Amino acid sequence: MSEGTLAVTPSTSSPQSERGHRILIIDDEISIRESLETLLTIEGYNIDTAPEGESGLDLIDRSSYDLVLLDFALPGKNGLEILQLIRERNPDLPVIMITAYGTVDHVVEAIRSGAQNFVQKPWDNEKLLADIRSAIARFHAEEENVQLKRALKQRYNFENIVGKSEAMLGIFDLVAQVAPSRSTVLIQGESGTGKELIAKALHANSPRRDKPFVPVNTGAMPSELLESTLFGHVKGAFTSAIATKKGLFEIANGGTLFLDEIATMGFDTQAKILRVLQDRRFMQLGGVQEIQVDVRIIAATNIDLRQAVRESKFREDLYYRLNVITIDLPPLRSRREDIPLLSAHFLKRFSEENSLPIRSLSSDAIRALVDYDWPGNVRELENIIERGVVLSSGQTINSDLLPGHLTGRSYSSSLLEHNPNASLFDIIEDIERRIIIDKLERCNWNQTEAAEQFRIPLSTLNQKIKRYRIEIKKRVKE
What we know:
The chain is an alpha/beta fold. It has helices spanning about 30-40, 55-60, 80-90, 105-110, 125-155, 165-180, 195-205, 225-230, 250, 265-280, 305-310, 315-320, 340-355, 365-370, 375-390, 405, 415-420, 425-440, 445-455, 460-465, and strands at about 20-25, 45-50, 65-70, 95-100, 115-120, 185-190, 215, 230-235, 245, 255-260, 280-285, 290, 295-300, 325-330, 360, 395.
């Protein structure tokens, strides 16, 4: 057997199917790069090389690879740091680490960080080639599985729900499996994770697709108005009931009623919802006749309903009626591999909507987006990409066009930059105005949510908005 750089004779068992696969070699020693490139080129692989991690990452950003051979000891960022950055960009891309210092600690640390394998210099050519074949074969088997799931996604019209992470692919499968039934579905997830999109996908892929999909934000109205909205009322049921009006349950008959923020409903309304779930019947406010409906209910909440039941804030019997099938949407920070894909999706959409020739995000902008924790989830990312598109004057959005809280830039006063003699009072007001605008953008221009995050009364926030003449933009639907 040949070893390391001593010989580069080709393997006698190289399968034809391996030919054409692309491998990136990242190593600071030119002799290692040349030796590996010669060996692997003879085997039929297409090879790119990089002398250090940053240039290797740039190649990964621009090209598609089947495997990376990564040196452990690199100038600048070491191999483990580069491995973590590769994982952020492409968590599925196989990486084999190579080092002259093969300690047990290094091996354990590399495998824990996501390396497929660990090879010590000087390497055995046949064993290295076998490891490469195995890693690439496993990678493409997994890719085929992902492609099948993506085909399933396209088949079931999930075009507005973007994601390639295992968590999201699993949700696509679950939605496709559950959609044809009439079972009640409870969608749980933080604000901004896309609960209404999942509800629409369930409806669109059900036998009810040609009937109404009726969404209602149950947290946006008081109990009396909510009950009138849901169940309708007869003429004279209350002072302003000048005519009989159908409720949303009746309007959604044959279709789907989406109850968003269901945890905010009062106990009386919860009891009436429970009865509809049990009997498929209800009465209008002020009415005496029961109305029978065939409505599928999909509910959504951004809080833990089980905990709300324990705290006596939500009816236990209604919880169990709703919790027939539960879909838990992961926060964006737990599926960072979807961030570049989502960013590209929003970039394309907003560029087309605004007729702007913006084609890409710079690598530093992508890195800032991936590193951020996204308390506002997908909705916050959507707003930030829209902001970048509108502010960009070129074809690329770089990190300078991202808000300061993403890139670590501090809130400096633009007033001070333009007027060095500005008073302290004016400077503080200028910074406060910018912080309020930033928070509103992150909360999708929802003043109530922004006030809660600031821990101030809504009236106080509204006074500041009026005082600073902040223009409230139209909210983007989740």
